[in-house]
Amino acid sequence: MLNPKRSHSASSFDMDVSSRPRVPSLLGSARDSFAFLKEPCFVKSGTGSCTVAEQQNDTQCKRRHEEADLDSELKSKRIKRIMANRLSAQRSRLRKLVYVEKLERDVKAEEVKVYWLSLQESLYQQSQMALETENTRIKEIMEGLEREKAMKEVEFQYLKKELQALRGASMRLLYN
């Protein structure tokens, strides 16, 4: 049996084919799931590599490979979760962009409304000023007509009194 602490060269691992350890493959078909190695099997889980002694004692090597498979499965789940999170974040950013563009369109539409309403307001203010000016002019005309009416009324009363005075004088002349 070989010493596991001793540094081995590639020639020290020459074993016959039937005693070589099997390593599960992450890719390929079920037929390709085990490969025969002449060298120590390296496990990606960070636990190190199986030594020749461990390869011969299949239980420790199998345990490390199972841990590596578990780590590999956890890593693939983690990668799937990360990808799903990235896709979700991307969809969220797209929704945000669509929402912001909608808000910008709404703002522009409201700005256009404000512009047209301000134009209408200025037209209405001009119309109001014109109507106020016309109203003031009509009031002045009415005041002038009322003064003229009052003067005519005074003149009418004066003429009426004078007419009565003339009638009274002419009646006195007739009966005298």
Automatic annotation (TrEMBL):
Keywords linked to the UniProt accession: Coiled coil, Nucleus, Transcription, Transcription regulation
Superkingdom classification of source: Eukaryota
GO biological process: positive regulation of DNA-templated transcription
SUPFAM superfamilies: Leucine zipper domain (SSF57959)
InterPro entries xref list: bZIP (IPR004827), bZIP_RF2 (IPR044759), bZIP_sf (IPR046347), bZIP_transcription_regulators (IPR052483)
Database matches in Gene3D superfamilies: 1.20.5.170
GO molecular function: DNA binding; DNA-binding transcription factor activity
Any GO CC annotation of this UniProt entry: nucleus
Name used for this protein in its record: BZIP domain-containing protein
Source organism of the structure: Populus tomentosa
